[in-house]
Amino acid sequence: MESSMKLFKFISSSGIISRRKAQESIQLAMVTVNNVVVMDPFAEIDPLKDTIRLDDQKIILNSSTSTIILYKPKGFISSRSDEMGRKTIFDLIPRKPFLNHVGRLDKDTTGIILLTNDGDLSQFLTHPKNKIPKEYIAKTDELISEKIIKKIEKGIFIGSGERGRAKIISQEKIKNTIHVKMILKQGKKNEIRRIFKFSGLNLIALKREKFGNITLDQLKEGQWRELTKKEKQYLDKITRKR
Question: How far is the C-alpha of 40 from the C-alpha of 142, rounded, in Å?
């Protein structure tokens, strides 16, 4: 363990919240170091000697990290709790160890979502500059024209001053729907749904099938599993490039 760490990094490394949330919490005077409020996210602390509390809860670094894969069903939100009482992905996994979701899937999207208590890994996998590919299957009711495909791959306005971009890998007609395989490397909020909306396309269903090289494998909806040895090696390999 490092003898000196930035305060926000110490908090995020515990797996409780992300780096961004850690910085926000510190700036909102929610964090104390040895019972003294500290509002500088970059303050240096000694993880072996200092006592850090977030909202009066003592933070302890994980002695070991854990990452799992969940097959998120439709109707579950990517949040730890919900004021409206809706089902969350945390209803589907064990309470311990304490894990956080790596990115989000909206309520109606199904598929693979990673959960971890490794704050640095989560930060790496979700940071736009690292361009981790995520593969989706989008179901629609008609083939996407070459003209629209070119626009989507070049980048299309999706509202809020943002542009959405995706690589269309294939289109396959199965029964009465078109299954469009596409890859995202950005991860803006509801990006594929917004791409379809602003392209005038009807999105019937959306499923994320791969996160980097990690797949659902044999999981069924609502099930979870630990990473395989090969998947751990893959994550170690890509994060070593930092």
Answer: 53
Q: What pTM does this model have? A: 0.82
The CATH code of the domain at 133-211 is 3.30.70.1560
Tokens of 140: 């629609």
Q: What is the maximum alpha-carbon separation in the chain? A: 64
Beta bridge partners of 174: 177
Q: What pLDDT sits at residue 14?
A: 78
For 173, the enclosing helix (H) or strand (E) is: strand 167-174
Q: Mind telling me the catalytic residues?
A: 106
The distance from CA 42 to its chain's CA centroid, rounded to whole angstroms, is 24
Domains 5-58 and 67-128+214-239 share a fold: no
pLDDT value of position 198:
97
Predicted local distance difference test score (pLDDT) of residue 229: 94
Regarding the domain delimited by 5-58, which CATH topology (the fold level of the hierarchy) does it fall under?
A: 3.10.290
Please answer whether residues 55 and 32 qualify as being in contact, where contact means their C-beta atoms are separated by less than 8 angstroms. no
Distance CA 21, CA 24 (A): 5
For residue 163, the model assigns a pLDDT of 96
**Residues 133, 213: contact at Cβ < 8 Å?**
no
Specify the pLDDT at position 108: 97
